[in-house]
Structure formats: C-alpha cells, structure tokens
Specification:
The complex is a heterodimer of chains A (about 80) and B (about 325). Chain A has about 80 residues and is mostly helical. Chain A contains one helix and no strands. Chain A starts with 12 loop residues before the first helix and ends in a 32-residue tail after the last helix. In chain A, about 5% of the residues are buried. Helix content of chain B is about 75%, strand content about 0%. Chain B is built from 15 helices and no strands. Chain B folds into two domains: about 160 residues, UbiA prenyltransferase (Tetracycline Repressor, domain 2, Orthogonal Bundle), CATH 1.10.357.140; about 140 residues. Classes of the chains: A mainly alpha (about 80), B mainly alpha (about 325). Chains A and B meet through α1 of A and α1, α4 and α6 of B.
C-alpha cells in the first residue's frame, strides 16, 4: 500500500496579509448589513401606528377584542 | 484534506486586494446606476409630493448600487473566458488571476440577495422585485443569453441599465407612472449609440473573442448608420420630459444644447470611416469623442433633473412662457 503524497498550497506572507485584510472587510460588511437592517427596522417601527392595525411584520389582527359585558348580578334575595 | 490545485496556486500568485473585489463590481457602471436611481428618488418625491425618510432613501439607493455590483460580478464570472482574450478586459480581476472565478459568482449571488432584501426593508416589495428583475436581466438574460448570440445584444440588454430610475421612483411612491418610464426610455435608447461608438473602435477585440457586436456581424457602415438612426430618435425623446412637466427650463436648455451636439457627433461619425479597415487615428478619435460625449450628455440631463427637483429650481416651461 503506497501513501499518496498530497501537496497543499501554502500562503505566502503577502497572501496571508491580503487574506486578513479581506476578512476584515468582510466582517465590516456584515456589521454594516446588520446595522442597516437595524436602522430600517427602527425607522419602520417609528413610522408605524400599531393601534390602527398597520401591521409591521405581524400579519394577524390587532383589533381589540370586544367582550360582552357581564350580566348584572341580581340583587340577593332577602330572607 | 486539500488536493493541490494549480488553478488556486496561480490565483494565489497575485494576492487579491480589496481593490480587485471593488473592480469586480464594475464601479464606473455603479456610479451611473446610482446617479440615475437617485434622480428617480428625488424626482418622484418632487412630482408626486410623497415624502420618503432620507435615511431610507439613502439605503434604497445603496441597495441599487449593491444590486448593480452583484450583476457586474456575475457578468465577470460568466465572461471570464472572453475577457481573457481582449486587451481591454484582460486586466480584470478574474483573467488576471487575482480573484478565483467561483468567488466572483458567490459574491454576486450573496450581494444580489442582500441588495433585494435591503430594498424591501427600506422601501417596498415592488421596488425590491424590480431590482431582482434588473439583476436577473443583466446577469442572466443579457450576459448568458444575448451577448454571445445576437448583434442586438446591446439594444435588448440596454434595458438592464435603464431600470434604476424606475426602481428609485417605485421606492418612493410604490408605483411607476409615465415619467418614470420616460427616464427608462431615455437610457434604453441612449445605450446603443453610446456602446456602438465604442465598438467601432474596439470591434477587432470583439471579433477575436467571438462576440457578435454589430460592427463584427454587419460591418462598420451599418453600425455608423444605426448610431445615427438611434441618435435621431433619442434627441427628441429627451425633450419629452419637458412636455410631461418632469423637466423644466434648465433641463430643456441642457437637453436641447447637448442633444444637438450629440447629433452632430452622430452625423460626423456616420460620414466618417470609423470602424473601417483603413480608418485612421482621426476616425478612431471621433468615435471615442462621441462615446465620451454620450456619457456627458446623459449625465448632464439627469443632473439637470436632480438640480431642478432636488434644489427647488424647477420652473415649468409652460408656466414661464
């Protein structure tokens, strides 16, 4: 049984530095995306009047439930 | 375990910088796209009286920029083989070995999703949908279907670059009225004379790469006449916004003056030998000057609309007379 020699590509110092810079930009882009989603969400929340059922991500009904008032209790009969 | 991959090794021989990835997104096209989308956003607010939160408007324009960059990356991924054959494009990130091809596709697809999502969050589903359509139109329909099959590639593909002002308008109002589609039409009919002027100079490169541009398939004379025909149609079309009330006095003055000069270039090119085998530097310079003027022509007309509607300088032509 012969062992197969596998060559792996090794990064030079320059390539490694370039990779680190790219990773930093990727991280920055991800943080930027999260911030932008946060900003749009905050602005939408501010602009939404939830009392009028102008739903924001929530598609259900926000109408207040109307409950029938409990029947008045009859006065207790005297002895 | 990773097998040694000579392609990867070749790619790593020139470490990719952030600049390479920016180039992958075609930044010059992004600038034009962002500018026309911004005009759509500003004009829509002025004409319809509908306000848009400025932060949301900025994010919507950023989404258009990201979408354009995504389409550019997908285009570079698909066209890497023919880019390597042409001198002008051989220095692009993929053929030069800086960026692996599959990375360009990945970047393009991720950016497409991010841009559409951001557009949706900042404006509405319709604008996000049209942005998705425009990315697909350029990245798939133009790049993969039209570009290598028909000499009308630029004509039909020109719609991809014409969407941004409509998307901007949709982001503000949620609808696309006639004025938005007039801006679309201006860019659509501007694209063929703009690009064919360049192709009259670069037709040998396209022939080498096997791209059926009009000068390659039909010759320089047909191309020069086509440039003239589209320009004759385009120049009056650019005055239609004045009739609908979208453009005021400033727009009319610029569209008329710059249009007449552009028409002059088209006539001069049609009478020249630009693109012919025996064409000299004078003819080549003429075609390149027309190409450069076409960019200035479109830019100044849209800048006029931006100034009129964004800075309160709009004076309707009918009311002032």
């Amino acid at each position: 049984m012969t062992e197969q020699i596998i060559q792996t590509g090794r990064l030079s110092a320059d390539a490694l530095a370039a990779q680190k810079r790219r990773n930093a930009w990727l991280a920055l882009a991800l943080v930027g995306f999260v911030i932008l989603v946060g900003i749009t969400t905050a602005i939408r929340i501010q602009a939404t009047d939830f009392s009028k059922n102008e739903g924001f991500y929530f598609s259900g009904s926000l109408e207040q439930e109307t409950r029938t008032p409990p029947p008045e209790l009859a006065p207790p009969e005297g002895d | 375990m990773t097998q040694f991959n000579p392609t990867v090794a070749a790619a790593l021989s020139r470490p990719a910088s952030v600049h390479d990835y920016v180039e992958l997104l075609k930044p010059r096209i992004i600038m034009l796209v962002v500018f026309t989308a911004l005009v759509g956003v500003v004009a829509a607010q002025s004409v319809s009286g509908t306000g848009m939160n400025p932060v949301m408007a900025a994010i919507a324009v950023l989404a258009v920029a990201l979408g354009a960059g995504a389409a550019g990356a997908i285009n570079m991924w698909y066209d890497a083989d023919i880019d390597a054959l042409m001198t002008r494009t051989s220095i692009r990130p993929i053929p030069s070995g800086a960026v692996p091809r599959e990375e360009a596709l990945t970047l393009g697809l991720i950016m497409s999703g991010v841009s559409v999502l951001l557009m949706w969050l900042s404006s509405n589903a319709l604008a996000a949908g049209l942005l998705a359509v425009s990315i697909t139109y350029y990245g798939w329909f133009y790049t993969m279907l039209l570009k290598r099959r028909t000499p009308q590639n630029i004509v039909i593909g020109g719609a991809a670059g014409a969407f941004p002002p409509v998307i901007g308008w949709l982001a503000v109002t949620g609808s696309a009225p006639l004025d938005a589609w007039i801006l679309f039409a201006i860019i659509f009919f501007w694209t063929p004379p703009h690009f064919w002027a360049l192709s009259l100079v670069a037709h040998k490169e396209y022939k080498k790469a096997g791209v059926p541009m009009l000068p390659v398939t039909h010759g320089a004379k047909v191309t020069r006449l086509s440039v003239l025909a589209y320009t004759v149609f385009l120049v009056p079309l650019c005055l239609v916004p004045v009739a609908t009330g979208l453009g005021g006095w400033i727009y009319m003055a610029i569209a008329s003056l710059f249009g007449v000069i552009f028409l002059g270039f088209a006539i001069a090119v049609s009478r020249s030998k630009a693109g012919d085998v025996d064409a000299g530097d004078v003819e080549r310079n003429l075609a390149m000057r027309m190409f450069a003027w076409s960019i200035l022509y479109l830019f100044t007309m849209f800048a006029a609309l931006l100034v009129e509607h964004g800075f309160g300088l709009y004076i309707p032509v009918g009311a002032a007379s």
